[in-house]
Design brief:
26 helices; disordered N terminus; eight-stranded mixed sheet; alpha/beta; 52% helix; single chain
């Protein structure tokens, strides 16, 4: 996969976030990078090369705000990421990785895994794997010990969660467009039957609605992808051909109050039919009748929402076995709550032993700061995680990509998912216009507003920031709130600009009337002149970062903008030369508060 024009909008967005979050332009994307080890050792970096992350050893902040509530994806794996990063930075310079040299680090990583509620057996296996990959390895030139250690952690996590770390399995190091496990496909003559099981409260009914919408609109047709050959490797997952299944939901939970009504509401909201026979019918008969209806009316997939219990009991298992015997499902997915940690893995193993399952759906992953469930499920049960729930809305269901999840756990972001989220919101025509503006360094304030709206469409600001390499651990919730406050201020100032000013930022940066214009804009938007000058400074930094990204992607960039920012200095002050000289003299006389340089 390469960064095409559809990805440029998300890169512009990432730049805006990075510049706003950092205190200086040189901090936004530093060249010292934990990805060095990954580039030199074959990790897929074609997308990540557009960014330069701060060292992995950077100290990471907690994932909860002062009010104690999680903030979307900002929480995901923060605890585990922080602990592993702290371990890595203490490795220090080494020429060779020895067992004695990494013994302390491995002990600390094991403690971090257990604190994150990873299963003990899985943690021990992972540590042993990291030791095998690390001990006796010579340091690659240009790679530090902490970077090589993180590379070993990445590979072991990837294998543990169902991925493939072997370079042979990923020709050219291209990021995977295919998740670890896919669902069986059916036809109108022989519909695929997918049975959803799990304990009460795990989110089965909601997961059924989410999965139905995914199968109806977003599931990739991997048979068609295989026929496309190499062409598919350069496309985003959101642009690949889809199956567009015709799904029938079957309401077989007759015990929980309003379970059938909930499924009917969900089905109505996503345009999927729901089959029900009321609360008096036998769930086995409901599933069988739903399958007959699907065959008669041309549905190619039947999703059966079964009942749950507070604990595993014989009645629950017996009912599931009878349903399985009657409809012979192609897939039996266990829906488990990620917040239960390693218990999710034990539950998966127990269900597989009792009734046999084909995979798991992890719900509420956006609220899991520990990561124990994601790491443990496959290691304990041997069954793959097929989908993860990343939010409360119906579209918030994603296929499980082990490589992307390993990257998030290690605090390295997930640019591929960020690009796909942006591509889903940005049309090809808009992306082409954005690309041209970036090539010509003509990004203006109207474009800035568009990017702000794009953030809102993609989800929470914290969730987007989490996907940017190096940003996950650098921004805690207090910083997130500060950035959001500043972004609102910036938007209010843009709304106070004339159309000419929005289309021509130089009028507010280098023009002789810049100061008077900026004073009018800030007063009109209820802000201070200092706020306006800070925004102009951030805006120039953002344009400079875009120019640098263009150079990395083979574009011409903007030498003038980079020259103005050379050495990490601040952008040129607002106003003309005479005004700047007057401000400098005023500062020498003790009137610096009135300056604007």
């Amino acid at each position: 996969m390469f960064i095409d024009r559809r990805a440029l909008a998300s890169l512009a967005l990432a730049t805006a976030i990075g510049v706003t979050a950092k205190s200086s332009p040189t901090e936004a994307f530093t060249t010292a990078s934990s990805f060095t080890a990954f580039r030199k050792q074959g990790l897929p970096c074609s997308v990540r090369d557009a960014f330069h992350s701060p060292p992995v050893s950077a100290r990471r902040s907690g994932g909860r705000g002062a009010d104690g509530r999680g903030n979307g994806l900002n929480m995901m794996f923060d605890q585990l990421s922080s602990a592993i990063s702290e371990v890595a930075k203490n490795l220090g310079p080494k020429k060779r990785m020895t067992e004695k040299g990494i013994q302390k680090a491995l002990k600390q990583v094991r403690r971090a895994l257990l604190d994150a509620d990873v299963n003990v057996g899985v943690a021990d296996t992972l540590i042993e794997g990291v030791k095998t990959r690390s001990v006796g390895q010579e340091m690659i030139k240009g790679v530090t010990a902490d970077q090589q250690f993180i590379k070993a952690m990445y590979d072991e996590l990837l294998d543990m969660m169902g991925g493939e770390s072997s370079a042979a399995a990923r020709p050219g190091g291209a990021p995977s467009n295919i998740p670890a496990a896919t669902l069986a496909a059916g036809s109108s003559e022989e519909p695929a039957v997918i049975l959803l099981a799990g304990l009460q409260g795990a989110g089965k009914t909601t997961a059924a609605g989410k999965l139905a919408l995914y199968l109806k609109e977003r599931e990739v047709d991997y048979d068609a992808v295989e026929e496309m050959g190499e062409e598919a490797e350069s496309m985003l997952a959101s642009r690949l051909p889809t199956r567009n299944r015709k799904v029938l939901l079957a309401a077989a939970d007759v015990y929980r109050p309003a379970a059938i009504t909930q499924l009917e509401i969900l089905g109505d909201s996503i345009g999927v039919d729901v089959f029900t026979m009321g609360t008096e019918a036998d769930p086995v008969d409901i599933a069988a009748a739903a399958l007959e209806k699907a065959k008669t009316e041309g549905y190619d997939t039947v999703l059966v929402d079964t009942a749950g219990r507070q604990v595993i009991d014989d009645d629950l298992m017996d009912e599931l076995r009878r349903i399985k015997t009657k409809v012979d499902p192609d897939e039996t997915l266990l829906v488990v709550d990620a917040m239960t940690g390693q218990e999710a893995a034990s539950l998966t193993a127990a269900f597989d032993s009792a009734v046999g399952i084909s995979g798991a759906v992890l719900t509420k992953l956006d609220g899991d700061s520990r990561g124990g469930a994601a790491v443990s499920v496959r290691g304990v049960s041997g069954k793959p995680i097929k989908f993860v729930g990343t939010g409360e809305k119906t579209p918030d269901l994603e296929p499980f990509y082990p490589d992307r999840m390993a990257s998030r756990i290690l605090g390295m972001g997930d640019v591929v998912s960020l690009v796909e989220k942006a591509a889903a919101e940005v049309s090809d025509a808009d992306a082409a216009k954005m690309q041209q503006k970036m090539l010509e360094a003509k990004f203006d304030f109207d474009d800035f507003i568009k990017q702000s709206k794009l953030v809102s469409k993609m989800g929470s600001f914290a969730g987007v920031a989490k996907m940017i390499p190096g940003m996950a651990g650098q921004i805690d919730n207090s910083k997130i709130r500060e950035i959001e406050r500043r972004m609102k201020k910036n938007e209010s100032m843009i709304c106070s600009m004339t159309k000419k000013e929005r289309a021509n930022p130089e009028l507010l940066i280098t023009d002789r009337t810049a100061r008077s214009r900026l004073r009018r804009i800030t007063l009109g938007s209820g802000n201070q002149l200092e706020d306006g000058m800070q925004f102009m400074s951030e805006f120039q930094r953002m344009r400079t970062m875009m120019s640098r990204m263009q150079k990395q992607m083979g574009g011409p960039g903007n030498p003038e903008a980079e020259a103005a920012m050379a050495g990490g200095g601040a952008p040129a002050p607002v106003g003309n030369r005479a005004m700047r000289r007057a401000a400098k003299k005023s500062k020498k006389r003790g009137g610096g508060a009135r300056g604007f340089g």
